[in-house]
Amino acid sequence: MILVQGTLLHRGKANDVYTTGNENLLIIDHSDRISAGNGAKTDVIFGKGKSNNAVSELVFNLLEKVGVKTHFVERYSDTAMVVKRAEMILLEVICRNKTWGSFCKRYECDKGITVFPAGVEFCLKDDALGDPFMPEWAITTLGYATAEEVKLIEQFVRKANYVMLELFDKLGLELIDFKLEFGRLKDRSIIVCDEISLDTCRLIDNKTGQNLDKDRFRNNLGGVKEAYEEVLNRLK
Ligand code: TMP
Asked: Which atom of ligand 1 is nearest to the CA of 104?
């Protein structure tokens, strides 16, 4: 497909979204920008965009194979991909296989406790409100998604978790948790949007027990660039 990158539609914290000559398609360019704490801490990590683009492409392709529709169309460059334009559903859906991160802060519990079956949490995507946890009745009352959509999204997340656990295990990584975002196409069908990368997954190296993900930046662990590079190398 011959597509030309158009004008900048949206500059996010980490990614830039561009129009194309086709109104149904967009280009997402994964930048090297990194941020944490709702933009409180920022930096630039050389090679991060390339790593995130490659991991996202791999996972989106895998999801499509198991019947979970995504916005991925094709690779555009080392850092960018062509995606379907969708109406974004303003929810962040988190899937947890082990207690970690904000879950442990919220409940003051140990990290690493197995969650089985995996926990699926819905949060409102609103930085100003701090992405608050949202029960299903609040989502439907406020019209962010219908009860049927919430049910379908949870099914998609559980299916994604199943195949992503296996995929990352093959790369020597344990998938602790991850975040997905969803959108609606014109026919109202639900697809996975945004990115699925080291920015949105918590991954622990099977051998060393060390994080190979954005926690290295969030928690000042050092070796951020090396972590993104390492996972990119394992894909090869
Ligand atoms: P948390 O433990 O901080 O809630 O994060 C759970 C997972 O969701 C982790 O893999 C990181 C991912 N995540 C995002 O990608 N974006 C976000 O804004 C948040 C809060 C989490």
From this structure: 2
